[in-house]
Amino acid sequence: MFFAAGPVEQAVTNHRAGFVPAPEQEFFFGYGSYERTLDQLEKAVQARPFIAGDRFTAADIYIGSHIGWGLGLQTLPPRKALLDYIGKLVERDAFKRGVAKDEELIAQAAAARAA
Asked: Within a 13 Å sphere around the CA of 57, how many CA atoms are in the beta-carbon half?
């Protein structure tokens, strides 16, 4: 989780802003380079069924959220490993129930505004 909150977020933010540290500066950043950070993220989501092993945990919620947002905002490239990982998460029944509940609440709020 700390990898996503620190190095991934900093690498993505700097990359999106167009800031690329010179090789001699990489030591001073918590991620080194954008590409190496993405390579490590990719390895992490490929290593096991879920981030912490064979079971879905809070780490998957957090890292999955980062990946989902990054893919949606196009701050992360659509690498196959990232797409496969997020695809596995959104196919979970709990995720589908959560989306259905969100849609229900949005519809209720829209109806209340229209009334």
From this structure: 10
Q: Tokens representing 9?
A: 């977020």
Residue 17, burial from CB neighbour count under 10 angstroms (0-12, 13-18, 19+): exposed
CATH, domain range 2-114: 1.20.1050
Residue-wise pLDDT tens digits, 88-113: 999 999 999 999 999 999 999 999 99
Q: Determine contact, residues 96/34, Cβ cutoff 8 Å.
A: no
The pLDDT tens digits for 49-76 are 999 999 999 999 999 999 999 999 999 9
Q: What pTM was estimated for this model as a whole? A: 0.86
| Integer angstrom CA distances of residue 74 from 5, 16, 17, 88, 94 | 18, 9, 13, 19, 25
Tokens of 66: 């980062």
